[in-house]
Each structure stands twice: as C-alpha cells, then as structure tokens.
Write a structure and sequence with these properties.
two-stranded antiparallel sheet, four-stranded antiparallel sheet, Znf_PHD-finger, Herpes Virus-1, alpha+beta, about 15% helix, metal-binding, 6 strands, about 140 residues
Length: about 140
Amino acid sequence: MDKSTVDKCYICLSQFEQQTVGSLDNCQHVFCLECILQWSQTANTCPVDRITFACIHQRRCPGGDIQKKIEVRTPKKADDEEEARDAVICEECGRSDRRHRLLVCIHCDSGYHMDCLTPSLNTGPEGDWICPECAVTPHHTGKNV
Ligand SMILES: [Zn+2]
Ligand SMILES: [Zn+2]
Ligand SMILES: [Zn+2]
Ligand SMILES: [Zn+2]
C-alpha cells in the first residue's frame, strides 16, 4: 500500500470525496476538515501519531493547495486567558493586588478594593455588588424620551 496516497479520514474513516480536508503542520496525516476541527477543540496532537500541531491546513482535497491556515488554541493558551480575565484592577488605586479584597461590579465589571471605597467596607457584600458609579447612574430601561 502506497503510504503517500491518503484516501480516507483517520477519525471517521470515510472516503475523501467532496469534503474539504485538513492536514496538520507537523505530519502528513489528512482528515476531514470537520473531523480535525472538532478534534482540535480537545487536543492539539495528531490523532494518529500524537505529534503536536499548531495549525490546520485547509485543503480542497488531499495534496491540494492550502486554502487557509487555521490556528489551533492550545490548552496552555487557555490558562493564560484565564489569568488575564482574572486581573481586575481597582478603579481607585489602580492596583490588582489583594484580590480577596477586590469587589467586581456586576454591571460594568469595574474593580474596587473594599477599603478604597467611600465609605469603605470591612466585609464583602453577600451576593452581587454594584459599584458607586453604577449605583448613582440610573440604568435606562429602554424608555427613550
Ligand atoms: Zn472524517
Ligand atoms: Zn500525524
Ligand atoms: Zn484599591
Ligand atoms: Zn459598575
């Protein structure tokens, strides 16, 4: 069997006919684009040989020209995003330290330290918290004048 002739998807085992295919940047394996896209949401290693890939090359058929390069999100990146999302900065002092003292407004996502507030709070509110800005600004509920 000629290894360079790929005629079916390693994931769903269906023949390549009309469907768009996807190959990986670090190995020769080819899959239905749909199959490898789905696979890439949980793992960024080739389903066949476990070689890590960073992007999927979209092709009209196996061996065809690359139509598009699709970058894959690696599990590591997800961690970074989580960190960035957690970094709430206090509107008053501009710092993100003392996170356990930082309150986050449910309306505008602004952060405030409990002791940077006026008046300051000694204990966190139970449940949702609304910042002073949002508390004084009435929310328009669609009643336009
Ligand atoms: Zn497939
Ligand atoms: Zn492979
Ligand atoms: Zn502060
Ligand atoms: Zn707010």
